Amino acid sequence: MRKRIYWLLPDLDSARRTMDELLLARITEHHIHFVAKESSPMDGLHAANVLQTSDLVEAAQSGALIGSGVGAAGGVAAALAISAASPAAVVIGLAAVGAMLGTWSSSMIGSSTPSRRLRRFEQAIEDGQYLLIVDVPRTRVTEIERLLTRTHPEAHFEGMEPNVPAFP
Asked: Where is the chain membrane-spanning (predicted)?
């Protein structure tokens, strides 16, 4: 299990040095993400993608849950209406179809919605700062925090999330 740590860095040079130090500390590039203003240079940085910057995962999960519930309710109604020989199969089948449609439609909306988790950083990013999102193993959180605090006094620790979704 990993924890997601947030840091704000003042400029590109600081962000590049931080990236290099995290790589030397054996944090893989796959777990290091940077968010910056659209016009800011990102040379040498691993930019965050839609999974980190949108509500795609949360929306897909909600869509699956709601879609399967609506599908199951429709399955019960259909099984009663047609007097199906196997009502359980109708309910399960329509619940699965509902989950797929709910996941698909909700993820389309979620991918275009900015992440609620990153809202608190919007002003800093607009002001030209770089947001570092790093996913570290639980056993290394303190070590990485100390490393960044010691080597980057210009950076600001902005907190952490207790659990990182397995999907992104």
From this structure: 64-82, 88-110
